[in-house]
Design brief:
This protein is mainly β. The protein is built from 15 helices and 79 strands. Among the domains are: about 80 residues, no CATH class; about 120 residues, Ribonuclease Inhibitor (Leucine-rich repeat, LRR (right-handed beta-alpha superhelix), Alpha-Beta Horseshoe); about 250 residues, Leucine-rich repeat, LRR (right-handed beta-alpha superhelix) (Alpha-Beta Horseshoe), CATH 3.80.10. The chain is globular. Belongs to the RLP family.
């Protein structure tokens, strides 16, 4: 028995030894990691080569070493393939290309990829041959990478994805394919973040798409996605833990089923004013931690079960004056420490004192309250645990409550867009010594920055923006030891700038002093702030000389803006100028009185944006200026004459090129760019030729403006090759030949301007359905034939200007069906017939604001029904200041229309058209009969011209209702009767011409009628009054005073011509422009001009 036991023990021992040996062998095998495969290392090194300065950030990424041991790289242990790459947060990586290299997608074993916060400079995600190769990926984070355009379908094909984050890319959108197609294969997705991505094209289907295609979704964040519509109840089928759909355009009722989801922890519906939210029963044990209904249409039928939200930490509500149960319910929320309240539309004097009893609060935000008289929130002083306080859009009839100065636990304090009775910044802010963030922006403060802010030694961020504060900047601000962000822009700060006491050790990263009244020179210490990333000193009165040299220590500087100052630049010969570590990306030197391009810029190899507009730079554009890293180059409003480089310029990542308003000659330069969207403006130069293949080279151009040059010949046929063109402006040149039919056939063109050329032939008739044209401007050519009826396919058309051509046919009444048509100019053509020809039963021209039919051969009666359709001219709403403009898909550019009209007997050129401006010009035709009374219903008219026709009968008294009328010309007709006394009500009328009619009686004497000259009434033998120096009732009908007779003899020869030309042109990207008005020719003695004004008899 003992022997058997001994044998058993021996066998067990052998088995144990074998197990140990086996375990050791397995462990040894597992601890043996396969080295990185060569192709994996090559792909990573290719990615690294896309970044300048990557050696310092990724020092271990070196050829010949094992990539599995590199920073932020993880490999599988068995095969040496890269399975994880996390470069998220590498903001300092300086991109030298605008796209991911195709070789990067050889990392086909990737399961986790994060490129978050790397600035790819509005680059494209690869449409094909890219993400679809990463079949194994489960976590993809491309947030805040500045990618733009269509989200590629390749990402939608990654069926194993669990997390997708594209948030913070405001220029991304879903179109082709749409959102539904994109999400159809993502059944494994658990987390989806699309904040800021444009989902406006998805309509109201997004919620049903997600409910059907992504059944396992747990976290959804769609903040600020421009989504319009309602939320479908089927969305409640998802087991969501977090839902953020704030800052959209939701409508209708929010499904109550979602509120009852047991899994839900966070619900943010804030800033959706049209979204109705009604709270329902909350069961006990509810786990909701965040509920933000801030800025929604919140129904105040609060259920008693609201008190069951025992886990609720954050609550945002729009308060109402009639809700008395809210305080008692909120008191029952034991975990609440974050409260955000917005004033409702009916809340004028809030009663919020109950908030002072919530002493556990650590965060309080108050938005849109009227704190006047007894409602001043002194109770804030009770909240001794408060760490964050935000007061936004509020009114105070008394000074800011000093009790806030006793909240010594505060770390963040913000006042934004507030109206204070006491306009000085309170000195007690210096008591809040724990503050790390202080923001006071766009409040009506004045006076100096209090010196007590120097006590805030823990302050990291200080924002005093748009507050009209004045005086010098306190020295103590520059000495704050922790300060990283200092923004004092848009104020009235003056005096000279102080030196930083220790610039080399200063942690300051962003410094903004734009739009102030600062004088003197820029201290040298500003250029020794080694941690500085952004410096904005533009729009001041700074002087002196800036030395461009290697002594600059701004190694971290990305943005430098010195525009609109009176500084000059000094370059030392033989100096290296900038050290190799100087990596500036955005440089703004507009309106700086530069006379040449500094040679120092030759060494800015990482520059992305260079703005040198509105200087005095002459001569040639240097060849070295065309940096391959450039995304935008603005040389507009200078005096350049030539280019050192050939017309074809390799500049691969360029998106914006502005050469407008120079003196450039010869052939237009053509940048060879691979960017997907391109804006090109060479207008207002002396270019005389253009490369015939321009359309093939600029295939992806979105905006092309070559107007006001000396280009001649046929419009190049290659423009038909443009893929994405939205705006084409070739106006004011010498182009001849026909209008290319391909321009009218396109389904992407929005603006077509060919005015003032020598084009002939007819307007192409092959305009297809789906036409997106909003403006067609062919004014001032030799266009013949009739207007094609296919123009009705352009349902978005707003402006049609074909004036000053040779167009024939009848009035195009069929265009009245276009719902958005605002401006139609047919002046100076050969059109004839009547304008009554209404077709069908629908309303016509309901959006029309300007109609100019002058100088044609129209005839017949004016019918009241036609004017009764002009609904836009009957609208008396005050929309002054809004400009008729067109937005494009490209980043930021806005385009504004141009129109030439006769107004107050002057030729007026509008380069910006206000939507409030309404005008009718039917002059120089053969209309007959009476003026319809219905014209008097067009109460928003500014100008009415029916002169030089055959109109008869009295002037309708209803015209006295046109309260906005500024210019009225009914001269040279056969109108009879008296001038309506109702005209005394036209207080806006500043120009009137009723001459050469058959009017009788006394001229009205009220208001502005005494200011009109006699020429306004001459040629009416039966009129009398002071204006004609002709007394009423005492003289015969044909008697005139010697003064009136002399005036009549010479009035036609000395009639004043005020020709006002308004030049309002856009700067960079057709953006904000400026106005210049020239009044010339006050007295013109030209017989030809006089003949043009002789009335028809």
């Amino acid at each position: 028995m003992a022997l058997a036991n001994k044998e058993l023990l021996h066998n067990l021992l052998l088995l144990l030894i074998c197990c140990c040996l086996f375990t050791d062998a397995a462990a040894a095998k597992l601890n043996t990691t396969a080295p990185c495969l060569p192709d994996q290392a090559s792909s990573l090194l290719q990615l690294k080569s896309s970044f300048a300065g990557a050696d310092s950030l990724l020092p271990s990424w070196k050829a010949g070493s094992d990539c599995c041991h590199w920073e932020d790289v993880t490999c599988d242990m068995a095969f040496g393939r890269v399975v994880s790459l996390d470069l998220g947060g590498f903001k300092d990586l300086d991109l030298t290309s605008c796209r991911l290299d195709p070789e990067f997608f050889n990392l086909t074993s990737l399961r986790n990829l994060s490129l978050a916060f790397i600035d790819f400079r509005i680059a494209l995600l690869p449409a094909s041959g890219g993400f679809e190769r990463l079949k194994d990926i489960i976590h993809l984070n491309l947030s805040y990478t500045s990618f733009m355009d269509q989200v590629p379908i390749g990402i939608g094909g990654l069926t194993n994805l669990i997390t997708l984050d594209l948030s913070g890319n405001n220029d991304l959108y879903f179109s082709r394919p749409g959102f539904q197609t994109f999400m159809s294969n993502m059944s494994s997705l658990r987390e989806l973040y699309l904040d800021g991505v444009d989902l406006s094209r998805t309509g109201s289907t997004w919620s049903t798409v997600l409910a059907e295609s992504v059944p396992q979704l747990q976290i959804l964040s769609l903040s600020d996605c421009d989504i319009i519509g309602s939320i479908h109840p089927s969305f409640a089928r998802l087991g969501l833990t977090k839902l953020d759909i704030s800052e959209n355009n939701w409508e209708g009722q929010f499904p109550t089923e979602i509120l009852q989801l047991k899994s839900l922890r966070t619900l943010d519906l804030s800033y959706n004013p049209m979204l109705s939210v009604r709270l329902t029963y909350f069961p006990a044990g509810n786990h909701l931690e965040t509920l933000n209904l801030f800025g929604t249409n919140f129904s105040y039928d609060m259920p008693s079960s609201f008190a069951n939200l025992v886990s609720l930490k954050t609550l945002g509500l729009t308060t109402m004056a009639n809700d008395n149960q809210l305080p008692s319910l909120i008191y029952k929320l034991p975990s609440l420490d974050d409260l955000r309240l917005m004033g409702g539309s009916d809340w004028k004097k809030p009663i919020l004192s109950w908030v002072g009893n919530l002493t556990q609060l650590t965060l309080l935000e108050l938005d849109g309250y009227d704190f006047s008289n007894k409602s001043v929130p002194t109770w804030i002083g009770k909240l001794k645990s408060l760490q964050v306080l935000g007061i936004l859009g509020c009114y105070f009839s008394v000074p800011i409550p000093y009790q806030i100065g006793n909240l010594t636990t505060l770390t963040e304090l913000e006042f934004g867009d507030c109206d204070f009775a006491e306009h000085r910044t309170p000195s007690w802010i210096g008591n809040l010594t724990r503050l790390t963030y202080l923001g006071i922006s766009y409040c009506n403060l004045s006076g100096p920055i209090p010196s007590t802010i120097g006590n805030l030694v823990q302050l990291e961020q200080l924002y005093f923006q748009g507050c009209n504060i004045s005086g010098k900047i306190p020295k103590s601000l520059f000495a704050l030891p922790a300060l990283q962000f200092l923004w004092l822009n848009d104020n009235q700060l003056d005096g000279s700038l102080e030196d930083f006491p220790a610039p080399l050790s200063s942690p300051l990263r962003e410094f903004a002093l734009s739009n102030n009244e600062l004088t003197g020179t820029i201290p040298k210490s500003f250029f020794q702030l080694t941690n500085l990333e952004s410096l904005y000193l533009d729009s001041n009165k700074l002087t002196g000389t800036i030395e461009l040299g290697s002594n600059w220590r701004l190694k971290s500087l990305n943005v430098l803006s010195l525009s609109n100052n009176m500084i000059s630049f000094l370059e030392k010969e033989g100096d290296m100028i900038f050290s190799p570590s100087f990596k500036i990306k955005y440089l703004y030197l507009e309106s700086c009185n530069l006379t040449k391009v500094p040679v120092a810029f030759k060494y800015l190899d990482t520059i992305n944006l260079l703005a040198l507009s509105n200087n005095k730079i002459k001569g040639a554009i240097p060849s070295w200026l065309w940096k391959s890293s450039l995304v935008m180059l603005d040389l507009s409003f200078n005096m350049f004459t030539t280019l050192e480089k050939s017309p074809l310029i390799q500049i691969p990542f360029l998106y914006f090129l502005y050469l407008n308003f120079n003196r450039l000659q010869g052939s237009i330069p053509i940048p060879l760019t691979s960017s997907d969207q391109f804006v090109f403006d060479c207008s207002n130069n002396n270019f005389s030729s253009i490369e015939p293949n321009v359309g093939r080279y600029l295939r992806n151009a979105v905006i092309i403006n070559l107007s006001k040059n000396k280009l001649s010949g046929f419009i190049p046929h290659s423009i038909c090759s443009l893929n994405n063109i939205e705006i084409m402006d070739l106006s004011h040149n010498y182009f001849s030949g026909p209008v290319p039919s391909c321009l009218m056939e396109r389904d992407d063109l929005i603006i077509l301007k060919l005015r003032e050329n020598i084009l002939h032939g007819t307007i192409p008739e092959n305009i297809r359905q789906g036409c997106k044209l909003q403006t067609i401007d062919l004014n001032g050519n030799h266009i013949e034939g009739a207007l094609p009826r296919s123009l009705t396919n352009c349902r978005d058309l707003e402006v049609l200007d074909v004036g000053n051509n040779q167009i024939v046919g009848s009035f195009p009444s069929w265009m009245g069906a276009l719902p958005n048509l605002r401006i139609i100019v047919l002046r100076s053509n050969q059109l004839n017939g009547t304008i009554r020809d209404l077709e069908n039963d629908y309303q016509h021209f309901t959006s029309l604001q300007i109609v100019d039919l002058s100088s044609n051969h129209f005839s017949g009666h004016l019918h009241l029904e036609w004017f009764e359709n002009l609904r836009a001219m009957m609208n008396n709403s005050n929309d002054d200041g809004q400009i008729l403009e067109h937005h494009t898909n490209v980043y930021n550019p806005v385009y504004e229309d141009t129109i030439t009209v006769t107004y107050k007997d002057a030729t007026l050129i509008f380069y910006r058209i206000e939507t409030a401006f309404k005008m009718i010009d039917f002059s120089n035709n053969s209309f007959e009969g009476s003026i319809p009374n219905s014209v008097g219903r067009l109460v928003s008219l500014h100008g009415l011209n029916m002169s030089h026709n055959n109109l008869t009968g009295p002037i309708p008294s209803q015209l006295g209702h046109l309260s906005r009328l500024e210019s009225l010309d009914l001269s040279c007709n056969s109108l009879s009767g008296e001038i309506p006394q109702e005209f005394n009500s036209l207080t806006s009328l500043s120009w009137l011409n009723l001459s050469y009619n058959n009017l009788t009686g006394r001229i009205p004497q009220g208001n502005q009628f005494m200011s009109f000259p006699s020429s306004s009434f001459e040629g009416n033998a039966g009129l009398c009054g002071i204006q004609l120096s002709k007394e009423c009732g005492t003289a015969g009908p044909n008697s005139t005073t010697p003064r009136a007779l002399a005036h009549k003899q010479y009035s036609l020869w000395e009639d004043r011509l005020d020709a006002i030309i308004l030049f309002i042109f856009a700067g960079v990207g057709f953006g904000v422009g400026f106005a210049l008005a020239i009044v010339f020719g006050p007295f013109v003695h030209i017989e030809g001009w006089v003949c043009k004004h002789i009335c028809k008899q």
